[in-house]
Amino acid sequence: MNFSSKLLEDAVAEFAKLPGVGQKTALRLVLHLLNRDKDEVQRFSDSVSKLRNQIQFCSICHNIADQPVCMICSSHKRDHSLVCVVEDTRDVMAIENTNQYNGVYHVLGGLISPMDGIGPADLEVDSLVERLKDNHVKEVIFALSATMEGDTTIFYLHKKLKQFNINISTIARGIAFGGELEYVDEITLGRSIVTRVPYENSLSG
């Protein structure tokens, strides 16, 4: 692709680094910004800069937050005895959109995947174990994608958490194997949370 401006070329190259954005889409986005008011483009630039420089991760659940403790973990209206274990922030958002869950979360930051070199030490597993030591948590729900990596992670976590006197459940599999949680429709996901089953029962399926 030939560019008449080095500034244009550099901007397109940066946008093209975004997932799912090719050069043609990147060019279209950059040209769109060029047609907007300078103040509007400045607000866009400032929001991205603030996102990168000021974003925090909740010290309790590791979800993305504006403060050291996220709004969910600091809320007195949530059931803190119920912890839903998810892969990342996108899954928290998906479950919240169902309006079927009133507990809190624990964001692992990924899934165990030996093929990708990701092991338990790369995830927020130790902090989950620490959360359970004060005997306040009564149930842990595994809400991980129905993939080989998700099942491997659940199996590992179950072994780690068996020492605690808590209920361990997993969302009902109205979700096809291989399905990513963030892409499941809200009705199916909400029903899967409500009709969760003890993890041991899911093994026989």
Automatic annotation (TrEMBL):
Protein name, as recorded: Recombination protein RecR
| GO MF, any single term | zinc ion binding
Annotated GO biological processes are: DNA recombination; DNA repair
Keywords, ordered alphabetically:
DNA damage, DNA recombination, DNA repair, Metal-binding, Zinc, Zinc-finger
The task this protein performs is described as: May play a role in DNA repair. It seems to be involved in an RecBC-independent recombinational process of DNA repair. It may act with RecF and RecO.
Would you identify the family this protein belongs to, as annotated? Belongs to the RecR family.
Q: This protein's superkingdom?
A: Bacteria
Pfam families for this protein: RecR_C, RecR_HhH, RecR_ZnF, Toprim_4
Locate the Toprim domain: which residues?
81-176
Annotated InterPro entries: DNA_Rcmb_RecR, Rcmb_RecR, Rcmb_RecR_Znf, TOPRIM_dom, TOPRIM_RecR
Question: PROSITE patterns attached here?
Answer: RECR (PS01300), TOPRIM (PS50880)
Mapped zinc finger ranges (C4-type): 58-73
Q: Which HAMAP family match?
A: RecR
